[in-house]
Write a structure and sequence with these properties.
Elements: E1 4-10, E2 29-36, E3 45-48, E4 57-60, E5 62-65, E6 68-72
Antiparallel strand pairs: 1-2, 2-6, 3-4, 5-6
Length: 73
């Protein structure tokens, strides 16, 4: 069984208790420290929903350095 940890997610408001807001059309960069035990190759993506949408959208994240992943949505 592979264990994955996700930490230090940015941006965040009140430890993730509330969703971030942005101006319609404005892009936001989402980043997080994502790592696993062992030497398995992992991948990550951001799921987001625009105001009024019921369906979730997905955007792949890119490994920036070491365990830091980033995506612009």
């Amino acid at each position: 069984m592979l264990r994955v940890a996700i930490e230090n997610v940015q941006p965040e408001i009140d430890c993730g208790r509330f969703p971030i807001t942005r101006t319609p059309g404005e892009h936001v960069t989402v980043s997080a420290d994502i790592f696993s035990d062992g030497h398995e190759v992992i991948d990550s993506l951001v799921q987001y929903r625009e105001d009024g949408d019921t369906a979730w959208h997905e955007e792949p994240m890119v490994l920036v350095n070491n365990d830091r992943w980033e995506s612009a949505v």
